[in-house]
Amino acid sequence: MVSEPGTRILIIDDESQIRKFLRISLSAHGYGVLEAVRGEDGIAKCATETPDAVILDLGLPDMDGREVIARIREWSTVPIVVLSVRAGEAEKVAALDAGANDYVTKPFGIAELLARLRAALRARRRATEEAPSEIRTGELLVDLARHEVRLAGAVVKLSRKEFDILRVLAQNAGRIVTHQYLLREVWGAAQDQEVQYLRVYIGHLRQKLGDDSAHPRYILNEPGVGYRLLTPEF
Fold first, then answer.
1. Mean of pLDDT values over 215-229
2. For residue 85, what is the DSSP state?
């Protein structure tokens, strides 16, 4: 799939081979490419060149990538996809909580990275437009205005909490939503560590949607991190 004309991606990574690979791959799919080796340079280019999205490595020579995310988030909502060799759950959660939109672990497949990038760009476009009252993915329709969920046209009866979980996932469709964020949004800040409680509700929600956790159509578990509502490209 080719990008929309004029879409520009900023790569912040100190590995020349990774930058070259990404530059070739992104260019082949119609993206314009900007590059930065250091965190400070990346922040400056993000401000002056206004890219449509950022692909960011966490291990930069002058600062940690999480600081880059935090600095950019002080003034910009540009989508940030982390691309890092750090595979630990704590690292992923910290980056996402700092404001990253998604997290891909090296080594990576370019098809997956491009899908994550498109999802982040799509979410940004939705955020800049009037918030839709209906969110659809496959046969699943979440009607926010009517507080109603339909699967292949049939109404699915959900509890208030189940609907609220699905609402948050739908409003962030295609991106990882951390356990802590879901718990804060649905139960409040005092409950943001009750991950097992959340798992029980996700299990009930999957049953009602006919969703198999081993082969999910709608709700994907990101182990130790959170959940993602799948979009057709995933």
1. 93
2. S
Q: What is the CB-side half-sphere exposure of residue 141 using CA atoms within 13 A?
A: 13
Closest residue by Cα to residue 171 from 140, 202, 132: 132
Q: What is the pTM of this model?
A: 0.73
Q: Give just the sign of the alpha carbon dihedral 10, 136, 223, 94.
A: positive
> Domains of the chain, with CATH numbers?
8-128 (3.40.50.2300), 134-229 (1.10.10.10)
Distance CA 221, CA 43 (A): 32
**Contact between 105 and 84 (Cβ < 8 Å):** yes
State phi, psi for 4 to the nearest 5 degrees: -65, 140
Percentages helix, strand, coil for the chain (3-state, rounded to 5) are 45, 20, 35
Instruction: For 19-49, write each residue's pLDDT tens digit.
Output: 999 999 999 999 999 999 999 999 999 989 9
Separation between Cα atoms, residue 176 and residue 27, nearest integer Å: 26
Q: What is the DSSP letter of 155?
A: E
